[in-house]
Amino acid sequence: MVNELIRAIAKAIKNEFPQCDIFTEELEQGFESPCFFIFCEGQREYDKLDVRFLAEHTFVIEYFPKERNQNCCCCAKGDNGDCCCCAKGDNGDCWEVQSKLNRLLELIALDDGSLVRGTNRKGEIHDNVLHFFVDYDFYMLKRKQPDEYMEVLNVYEKTRNGRK
Description:
Layout: H1 2-16, E1 21-23, E2 35-47, E3 52-64, H2 73-76, H3 92-104, E4 107-109, E5 115-126, E6 129-141
């Protein structure tokens, strides 16, 4: 199920950001930014009544924005804030992407067409990298093995002390 959720997240992101690479297994050394890295941070299952269980999945989507332009007059001298000539801000790109991810990952479509709602969506920026967290929790059914029937049942019956 985790792989199916990762595919659905990647598909939603690719539709909105076709120019960005998306990595799901591991981040390649020397990758080109901007790009996304998607991984499942944790998965839990809680048994519920009969054959139902609650599956909880927490995903992290990391966004690596464009590198600062070293030939730019503002970026090269390390000005904090918006750049006057290459339109590259410090964290502005990350905040825009987070806003789009909030809407994109609210509902994702799985391979079978069913929709899953993302909850607890939030973003944090550390070292100019956006870390976007989203939970996908839903109920599932366990496959129940059919009961085996007895082949033969012998019953011996007798009344006690002649009573009916």
